[in-house]
Amino acid sequence: MKLLTNYKYWIINFFGWILFALFMLTIDKITYGGGDSPNRMYYLLSEGVLCGLLGFVLSFIILYFIENYFNIGDYSKSDIYKLIAVIVVTQVIYHCLLWPMLNIPANYFLNESVDLTLVQKLTNVPHFFAYFVVWLFVVLTLKLVYYINTIKVKQLQLEANLKESQLNTLKGQINPHFMFNSLNNIRGLMLEDADVARNMLTNLSETLRYSLTKSELNSISLEDELEMVENYVEISKIQFEDRLQFETHIDEDALNKQIPPMIIQMLVENSLKHGISNIKKGGQVTLSTFIKDGQLHIEVTNSGTLQKSENSTQVGLKNIKKRLELLYGQNATFTLKELENNVVATIKMPVV
């Protein structure tokens, strides 16, 4: 924030100096009987205006130093000493110019000169120095507030950039994870059933097209995500055959709500990898979505028990938790629990 080039500061500073000087100097003298005649009152008014005007002009010497040589966020002791030196020089100039200037209205209105001894002039130094102290306090406060706000903005920008970077990293974990499983399945089918493998490649290409077009987004509609999940399930059914039963219970009011891309696919994939694949006779996966208490609920239930494998890194589940935290903070939750020989994964997020 450059006050030297801010016309609003010039205007406010000008009237601030004049009014403050009038209040501190002229009104005080008039109150105590100094304005017993019109000419005396005119002199006191002109005295206040001249003191304020001189302070206004000389304040730019200090301001120039502050804005060009004094960093409010990174200053040293030498910088403080230099600032004090500039203020002292300004005070010397102020008092050297003030008394000759006050002689002009004194001669005009009172037909006399301002004749003060050196001691009397020195006793006025603290009074006029207080004007500059008040002005300096206001300016440094403005500079400090601006500096703090700038730091806050930079911090928010850094956090936003970090969040975006983390989200992109998490998205990058999704596609290779899904590709690895799918390509392994295709490789196993190539020599067994070429037609089935061809259909699987078609579904995979549709899934990859979705991933490439949507992965740069932080949110998509639930309806679009469900189309991708259907392709994924079709691919998985070729592998599991009759061992996989898949059902959906979708609230139509939730179809246009926004969710993070690929997040339901990861829930379904996790239920197949750690649930159905471990059951010899297979099982059922049920996907349900509904809106309750102002939140979108996504539930994926699969047959089986909640088991933790020592070889499992649980990348998918950690990915889901981290993405929800980055996008919604404390307003979204992810839980995984076992209930009556079923594993239930539940996501609750704000309705968008």
Question: How is this structure best described in words?
Answer:
This protein has 9 helices and 7 strands. The protein has 352 residues and is an alpha+beta fold. It has 2 domains: 7-123, no CATH class; 157-350, Heat Shock Protein 90. Helix 2 (38-69) runs parallel beside helix 5, helix 5 packs antiparallel against helix 6 and helix 7 (222-240) packs parallel to helix 8 (263-274). Helix content is 65%, strand content 13%. The protein is rod-shaped, with a radius of gyration of 38 Å. The strands form 2 sheets. The protein has a 5-stranded mixed beta sheet with strand order 2-4-5-7-6, with helices on one face. Strand 6 and strand 7 form a beta hairpin. The longest helix has 65 residues, at 125-189.
Can I get a quick summary?
It is built from nine helices and seven strands; from the N terminus they run ααααααβαββαββαββ. By secondary structure, it is α+β, with helices and mostly antiparallel strands.
Number of domains: 2
The CATH H-level homologous superfamily of the largest domain: Histidine kinase-like ATPase, C-terminal domain
Q: What percentage of amino acids are in beta strands?
A: 5-15%
User: What is the helix/strand order?
Assistant: HHHHHHEHEEHEEHEE
> What fold name goes in the CATH topology slot of the largest domain?
Heat Shock Protein 90
Strand elements, count:
7
Helix content range: 55-70%
CATH class of the largest domain: Alpha Beta
The radius of gyration over CA amounts to 38 Å
